[in-house]
Amino acid sequence: MKIRIGTRKSRLALAQTEMVVRALKSSRPDIETEIVEISSKGDRITDRPISQISGKGVFSSELEEHILSGDIDAAVHSAKDLDIDLPDGLEISAVLKRGDHRDVLVLPKGAELAPTDKLLIGTGSIRRRENIKRFCPNAVFKDIRGNVETRLNKLISGEYDGIVLAAAGLERLGILSEKIGNSIIENSDLSFMIFEAEEFVPAACQGIIAAETKKDSAASEILREISDRHTYISFETEREFLRICGGDCHTPAGIFTRVSGENIKIICSADGRAILTAEGNVSDKYELLKGLTAKK
């Protein structure tokens, strides 16, 4: 059987799709795969913030249209880019084991972050802006668009004093390989300040790679074999949080869930400032969410 897998054209999107292909081939060596590159609306329109285009679906809707039309059998997404509600007839059949969930403040090499600094930070995310204000109250912000490499080049050229990116993307591109806490590490051109979820709540499903298919399709059945159970629990829980609190790219809402065995710890913030936590059995995950969102 051959599975046609759709993906955006960026180097990061292709790297993530290759991760799905490798998992598939490891599980089912008999499966043939074909990668189909598709340009999304979010990739084509780079002169406006995502919130001014049409929301998260700008990176996923066209791939979903290709699944529904039968042009491809599956699409690979960064799960944080998905709309809360999928189109009728589609489902998330698999999520790979979660990568690094954290956010990273990227600075020029040798730079240090001081609370009094009035740094120009590149990010269009309201959630990231609210989080950065806790560490650098005098920071000012400017939108930034483009793939990871484009954003880093803008920082290196001096257009920004710092930019905020996801650790998972930097790692998957081989730019950042060390997993450390809230401290600064450097490469030849840049410094990276990595924040833990307890102090800088990430976007829902950050670090998760998701494979989407038609419901109950042959591709769906095969992809389910590579899905990571703990990550899928986090995926469901974090998306439900957004559904309850109305979170999207227009709001500062963030959440991270840590699943161990049958235990789940939830760290969330509806406003980007107050950070709430709860812990309990995974079977009670939605009740835990309701308790937390009632406090917002």
What would you note in describing this structure?
There is one protein chain. By secondary structure, the chain is of the alpha/beta class. Helices cover 30% and strands 25% of the residues. A six-stranded mixed sheet has the order 7-6-8-5-10-9. It has a five-stranded mixed sheet with strand order 2-1-3-11-4, sandwiched between helices. A three-stranded antiparallel sheet has the order 12-13-14, with helices on one face. Helix 4 (126-135) links the parallel strand 6 (120-122) and strand 7. It is globular and about 60 Å long. The chain starts with a strand and ends with a helix.
Q: Give the CA-based shape.
A: globular
Biggest beta sheet summary: 6 strands, mixed
Spatial ordering of strands, largest sheet:
7-6-8-5-10-9
Based on the coordinates given, report the CATH architecture of the largest domain: 3-Layer(aba) Sandwich
Which structural class do you get from the secondary structure elements?
A: alpha/beta
Name the beta content range. Answer: 25-35%
